[in-house]
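Hi C.,

You asked whether I'd gotten around to modeling the 594-residue construct. I have! Everything is below, sequence then structure, no commentary in between.
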Amino acid sequence: MAAMKILRFPAAHRARHCAVGGLNIWLMSLLAALWVGGCTALSSAPVSAPPAGGPAVLLDVVTAGDVPPGNVQPGDVVEVRVAAAGGAPAAAYRLAIEGADTGWREQKELPGPELRFSWVAGEPGTYEVVGQVRDPAGAVGESRRQIVVMPYAAPQKTGSAGIVTTKVALPTYPLEKYQTPAVDPVYRWPYQVFDRERFLAEAPQPSVRDYQLLVLENDYLQVSILPELGGRIWQVLHKPSGDTMFYQNNVVKPSPWGPPKQGGWLGLGGLEWGLPVIEHGYDWGTPWEVTPFTLDDGAAGVTIATPQDGRLLSAQITVTLPPNVAYLEIEPAIRNLAAHTVFFSYWQTAMLAPGAGNRPSAELHFVIPGEIMTVHSTGDTALPGARQRFTWPDYFGRDLSRLGNWDHYLGFFEYPAAHGPFVGVYDPFYDAGAVRVYPAQIARGSKVFGLGWRRAIGSETYTDDDSAYVELHGGLAPSFFVPYSLPAEGMVSWKERWYPVHGIGDMVYANRSAALNVTPLAQGLAVALYAPTSIQGTLVVDDGAGGVTRRMAVALGPERSFRAVLKRVGFGPALRIRLEDDAGRELLTYTPAD
């Protein structure tokens, strides 16, 4: 293994734990990384001091690699060893931390004259490690040591965001051969009609084609944009974890979906801009005008705009990547260029597969506010039909917020309109997710779509591998069933924030500052937070049961999440969780009603 540094802590009295979740993290690490087999049960009883006269015990804590001996931080790997001092004979060994222990491990079960395990350091706090050795005569010796896990100090990032233009080569089916130009007279909007029947009959093969790729990048995110294919944000890479946020189709292949007049659509992935009609709009596969820019504060971005060619509406999407953060700012602006009111649709579609697989798992969780949804369309006969409502997330004992509980495809809207301030997905299998934070009073539509699970639509419909996705749509109108209107020469715009999430297990709530997961446990409450910016602050938790309140210092950011287990804190309707910055300003507040 890597070079190790020995930490020899002075013997100490039992340490005060800082009311955080290192114990559970330690237990999981112990079960996963114990270097000796057979540890299948853990006792939670306190380790009592043995009678005097036992063997002398050597208890060492070793840091790996370049971890400074005095600066163990959450996530660092340390190794704990217990052995009889001086090579004295030993019959069994035992290791414990904060009262939970391995039980006695017989010498004959071990590969050498010691018991050791690798531990991933938990949240900041003081952890007491107890090592015991039993000699062949049955006498027990003991040593106690402390491991101090220091708060994570987020590095100060000073580099600006940058922007480069490059190319990407993609296998591409010959769409142009099967397209005929047309114009929608209502909007004076040009579009292409796709002859899918002839495409299927002739079964053409793809050929590799180069496309312009515009890349925004800062210390935490890499954002790829395809100007020639709908001006879409194709992918967001979360650099600290290596996870991607969006689904990324690596072949340009027409699917049978899209506006009925068009007869096709590219399920290319990423975040696309759909107008002036529903079902992805007309310009999902056409070139958009893209203009890069940089700002004095170190941000980089692009404006993505429809052509000025006589159409009655224009769309301009400003995408900004600030420096030193792990979020994107997106500002759509839709203008009516006509001398009369125009009724239209604007819906942006995010195709998502957070994590490393480019395919959601059965565990994927749709985190959607609200208790009632309206069906847009579905192939699931156990659900209501189009325009009908159903309860969310539980529908007759079926948790529809989990993709694995879906049968066939399903699309639905929040009812009666988007609740805000966020929507998101989280896939516990990949420990990764995505968050959209937006003003629901302006962008009043929120839609979910999935291909299904047990009888899902096959990937061959839109790609040439087994990749898959789910969709989050955001629109101006509450649903596809009603249009949005702009008066003559009117304009509507808003700002929203998108960010990838990582390392919190699942998600129950999010806002522009952080994403939160809360899990009730037998011994208390597990709390996890991820922030797209560096935060030094305080977490305040009140379960409402007799005024039980916990306060603890937290440090989190794009490179590291915060996780804790709060013992003897219950989960109930009176629970209140608040995140404050170092000046006491409220960043996030959550109750189960949220």
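If it helps when you're writing up: The first helix runs from residue 22 to 33.

Thanks,
B.
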